[in-house]
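Methods — Computational structure assignment.
A single polypeptide chain was analysed. Its primary sequence is given first, followed by the predicted tertiary structure written as structure tokens.
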Amino acid sequence: MAQPSDSADLTATSYWTVGPGRGELRRESLPPLGDGEALVRTLYSCLSTGTENLVHACRVPERVADIMQAPHQEGRFPAPVKYGYLSVGTVEAGPAELVGRAVFCLYPHQDLYVVPAAHVALVPDAVPPRRALLAGAVETAVNALWEAGPRIGDRIAVVGLGLIGASVAALLRRFPLGRLEAVDSDPGRAALVAALGIDVALPEDASEDCDIVVHASGNAAGLARSLEMVGDDGDVVELSWYGDGSVEVPLGADFHARRLSLRASQVGAVALPRRHRRTTQERLALALQLLTDEAFDAFLGEETDFADLPATMDRLLDPGHGSAGLCHVIRYPGAP
């Protein structure tokens, strides 16, 4: 194992949410590099704006605070908390087979960190480090599809074309489906997904009688429309997380009469249909392999410097910020 001689003296800069709508960069000392650990210098991290906006606004409900912790989070919700889970960097020291390699890690926004080597995943040579940021979103999409279980010839709709919904749609376009339709009210998102060769519709124009509807819009209207779009005995798979928001679901319409199913899918555990035969490490490795598809580059949007992250978070919390793309990229010193 390679190890810098002064590893005990290394310091890092990390981003912390310190109150509702307030964040700051903090300096911290890193622990000495131990056996089986890796020292990673970050190249890029990504803001998952749906979840991270809720964290930045201190809107994580107390009853799910433990469930919603990120793998390497520090602090507790609502604040102060060091949060984030989409990071790509280069291993500077650690096991010889990792040194010099690009890796993905579910780590908060921080420029240098020490983690167990088992907690990083090698980025395939065919996947550029910047695109590898999408591994967390694609892993969530893989889990959702394991949950949904699409079959040949199915008619499927994806409602809500944020990062997660668009990732689900991008994977589904590989399946031999009878119909795949992406549904969103935002023309900008619709145009992005249409560029992938996927049919796109406004909610009011969406096709009905679907076998499966995957809902990822994050709002009650999208969920209500999903229940209308799915056919008799069909399944709605819910990927949205609403934080402390209250969501009204129209179960008094035709939900019972048409024997519909509504179930949640969440990436914290491997989907039950594969839980006994796949590990979370295998699921993440699969997501990274799927990112050899260059079409995912269209999801990568605006890029800002890590030093500007507190101001960037304030801007992204504004619903009218208008940032292009689905994934806001944070660039660190030394990134290509």
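Note: The chain is about 20% helix and 30% strand.
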